[in-house]
Amino acid sequence: MQATVFSPRVFQRNREGGFRPVFEPRIYPPSSVTSLLRFGRALRNKMDGQRDEIGRLNRIKRYVSPPIVETILNGETALFQSHRREITVVFLDLRGFTAFSEGTEPEQVLDLLKGYHAAMGGLVLKFDGTLEHFAGDGLMVFFNDPIPQEDHTERAVAMALEMRERGKELRADWLKRGWDLDLGIGLAAGSAALGNIGLGGRIAYAAVGNVTNLASRLCTAARGGQILTDQRTAMKVNRRVEVEPVGSLHLKGFRRPINGFNVTGWMAA
Fold first, then answer.
1. DSSP state, residue 268
2. Are residues 192 and 162 in the same domain?
3. Same domain, 134 and 228
4. What's the angle, vertex CA 121, arms to CA 168 and CA 69, rounded to 5?
5. Same domain? 247 vs 116
6. Which of 44, 23, 31, 39 is nearest to 3 (CA)?
7. pLDDT tens across 127-182, in order?
């Protein structure tokens, strides 16, 4: 069986002096037609694969800051190998969330978390933080890795301050619904080990060290609307950030009390 395909050959002058296209049939053997069909299917599959890949990248960009996405796309995987580095860690969660979730319908809890995560996640991306994990109302973010940031502690403070302001707006809406929730934040700078951890195909890029424990415990100790940090971290940004002492904090897992400070805002220029 042969296939007949009409294709334009040339334009010929007609009797009126104009031009008209002349078509001539071309006879293609079955093997050529089969090859053409295979090529078309392969091209379509490739385009479908590229479309899926673009979709995956767009989903990644929702949760990971653009510099990290670019690092992944450029193949700079060495940045994600195990190493040690100074980072600044921020923990946040909601005061009153456990009681709220126990007495509220699951759909309402999910609706609240969607809005809360969207608000806080947007600020993580704005300041180029690395979101290590979020579970329920708790989020952990760190700075200065995998992309180095000389101002990582100031970035963390700036993000925490904007999160507190956004939290006030969310709280006002929640109170109208009868939900007494408020945001608490803990922030600490220090050395940590970083690298990929996980089981099987579930791999996460994580920070491990005393600094993560300290930020977590400071978050637990923070009252609604507070950003608690320790003395060492406060000294790193004392020329730009105003803090107020809150006294000695007895944090779980720490043998000695920690001198705590509440970050109140930026110093006046």
1. P
2. yes
3. yes
4. 155
5. yes
6. 31
7. 999 888 888 899 999 999 888 899 999 999 999 999 999 999 999 999 999 999 99
